[in-house]
Amino acid sequence: QARAGIISTVEVLKVMEAFVNEPNYTVWSDLSCNLGILGTLLSHTDFYEDIQAFVRDVFTPIGERLGWDPKPGEGHLDALLRGLVLGKLGKAGHKATLEEARRRFKEHVEGKHILSADLRSPVYVTVLKHGDSSTLDTMLKLHKQADMQEEKNRIERVLGAISQPELIQKVLTFALSEEVRPQDTVSVIGGVAGGSRQGRKAAWKFLRDNWEELYNRYQGGFLISRLIKV
Hints:
The chain is an all-alpha fold. 71% of the residues lie in helices and 0% in strands.
């Protein structure tokens, strides 16, 4: 109803606030998705920081309950929920989550304590979102060293979280490099487009500037429509 302009988005946010004690992954996934859409829309307004603060408020209680480490008797959905919640808090700039993500990332890179598979995406996205050129370089090094395609894809999907314009360009150039399989280029560009307002503008310009190469690469396939959609 809010999307159709029938009710105020404020009403949606009030409903969302009622879910702070919700334990179910599917519900949180839906909340996260809708807040992501709102964040994208509000990134063009003065309310972007307010929506980030709202995300922190709604997701902090469940984040504190779940913690960073698996508990005895947890199911698969709890692990998924932990990754979702920590990623959301990290991207929104929740201080404690950012600090812990940086600490764990450093230990992971140094080989002291390797991150579990379900925590890698939230940690990667958090350190990149609030990172600099050395963070991006470290991530690209991890990509190069990864011996499993699953890990390479995981890194490719989050690179677009980086915020600085010159680093966004570096990620887009990387997308068309030989380091990335042609079928995975779309994921990198899509990650940039969904990462920030600056990323969306840069990805759109990049698509137009490299249209001939991209079209020739994917013509007639579903990837070209996916690329345009993202």
